[in-house]
Design a protein that fits this description.
By secondary structure, the chain is of the alpha+beta class. The protein has 12 helices and 15 strands. The two termini are 58 Å apart.
Length: 479
């Protein structure tokens, strides 16, 4: 059996149900287009922003390396001023006579606070002396900030970097402790003591251009692990630095000391204007595409609605001639086997003449509704004019018993309850004629004409039988 709906032959069955489904489907189309475009846009934006993040991380790493090199070079250059003092001590075998003259030539940078000599770790001389008097006689191997570096320098036999820590004379400083060994009378090099240079802190950091990082949009922080307090110590910072997932950190190695250089954007990635703008563009573009899809769907729905209006009888909601004939032509073109029933209401003209056309319209609408309740997907029902209807039964000839049972039920359903009009009951009855395809015709007009002719033949037979019955009744009444 051919399913007319699924096979595309009869796309207008259950029109109201299909219309509701259509608009529901349209909203899903628009939502789907929006979601797909939004997802695609977010993926593209995510890839772009991820690339931007990688570029930014690479830029931050370059900045850290650049500033780390500047810190290492600056601090190391100043700390190695101690080598001049060490050479003086070695040349004089520990008997330095012209310390002040040599020290003056070494202290040629405003970031150097002082240089000093500490035989056996006890400060014997310092330059400049003014402001540094408190250092004279101070034991660098004793207890105090920065003295662990002095002990470490003696143990290692090489320069040790320390700080920043609070100075005895006030303020903060960075120091370099260099142990010195002097040859004695027996030709053995023995530990003589320490020479040291103290750098002003944080002034020594000011000339490194760390503040430019904030102008570039980055927060920075340089920290170390303080050996005296065993706590984290902030050496330099700027901006709202925090432990965020988008920070970059690298270690700066200055002699024996490790500093941690951390750099992070001042603004979180998800709060940056370009990212919010891109997100807004993605959402706006997705909405625009969704609206375009919805608009096209609405236009299709409007066009379909107009087509339905053209092909649908406005009174009964059934197909009209323009809706039925393309289906018939399609069936004939595909050489389908089917039966065409031509149906006409009995005494419909009398209903119109007696009760008016408004009641006639109610009769037509009620007849179409009652008969439609019996139809399945193998039927196509249409009103082609006035009180004339066409019913197609698809899928080949039905058995005589099935056909008789169907029409018996149809007559019962149609005529079971009367239609009340002006206080009178109108019972619906109808006549029908059938034409088979292809036996009775191979065009729509031929099939309809055949079924119409047979319907009128049966109607005339029925009317003749009624006239004969009434005539017999009158003859009986004479006696």
């Amino acid at each position: 059996m051919v399913n007319a709906v699924n096979d595309g032959i009869y796309p207008y069955l259950n029109l109201e149900k299909r219309r509701k489904f259509h608009f529901k489907r349209l909203s899903k189309e628009a939502a789907g287009a929006f979601c797909v475009c939004l997802l695609f846009g977010l993926i593209v934006a995510g890839i772009f922003l991820e690339h931007r993040c990688k570029l930014e991380r690479a830029e931050m790493e370059c900045l850290i390396i650049e500033k780390s090199i500047a810190i290492q070079e600056t601090v190391s250059r100043l700390l190695y001023k101690t080598q001049g003092l060490a050479a003086l001590v070695i040349d004089t075998r520990g008997h330095v006579a012209n310390f002040e003259r040599v020290a003056a030539s070494l202290v040629d940078d405003p970031d150097i606070l002082n240089v000093l000599l500490a035989p056996d770790g006890v400060v014997a001389d310092v330059y400049p002396r003014a402001g540094n008097e408190a250092l004279l006689g101070y034991d660098l191997f004793g207890q105090g900030p920065g003295n662990k570096e002095a002990v470490l320098a003696k143990e290692r036999g090489s320069m040790v970097f320390g700080g920043p820590f609070p100075l005895l004379q006030g303020g903060w400083g960075l120091v370099g402790r260099l142990p010195v060994r002097v040859e004695d009378s027996e030709g053995i090099y023995r530990f003589w003591g320490l020479v040291s240079v103290t750098l002003r802190f944080p002034q020594v950091m000011d000339g490194l251009g760390l503040n430019t990082l904030e102008r570039l949009g980055y927060a920075y922080e340089i920290r170390r692990f303080n050996p005296d307090t065993e706590e984290k110590q902030i050496i330099a910072s700027g901006g709202a630095s925090s432990d965020r997932g988008d920070l970059v950190e690298k270690r700066i190695r200055i002699l024996n000391s490790d500093w941690l250089f951390r750099l992070a954007p001042l603004q979180h990635h998800f709060l940056r204007p370009e990212k919010l703008l891109m997100l807004g563009l993605v959402v706006s573009l997705s909405l625009l595409i969704g609206l375009i899809v919805q608009r096209n769907a609405d236009l299709r729905a409007a066009r379909d609605g107009l087509e339905r209006m053209v092909k649908t009888d406005p009174l009964t909601g059934l197909l009209n001639r323009k809706g039925l004939f393309p289906i018939l032509e399609n069936l004939l073109r595909r050489r389908e086997t089917f039966h065409l029933w031509y149906i006409d209401l009995n005494h419909f003209k009398q209903v119109n003449d007696t009760f008016g056309h408004n009641v006639g319209d109610v009769v037509l609408r009620e007849f179409g509704a009652r008969l439609s309740r019996l139809l399945g997907s193998e039927h196509i029902f249409a009103r082609i004019g006035g009180d004339e209807f066409v019913l197609l039964h698809l899928g080949g000839p039905a058995g005589p018993e099935d056909t008789a049972a169907f029409w018996a039920e149809a007559e019962r359903q149609v005529g079971e309850e009367p239609i009340m009009a002006n206080g009178r009951s109108i019972f619906l009855t109808f006549s029908k004629g059938v034409a088979a395809c292809p036996e009775d015709g191979e065009t729509p007009d031929a099939l309809i004409a055949c079924a119409d002719r047979r319907m009128y033949d049966k109607k005339n037979e029925r009317l003749a039988a009624e006239r004969k019955r009434r005539a017999g009744d009158r003859a009986d009444n004479r006696f």
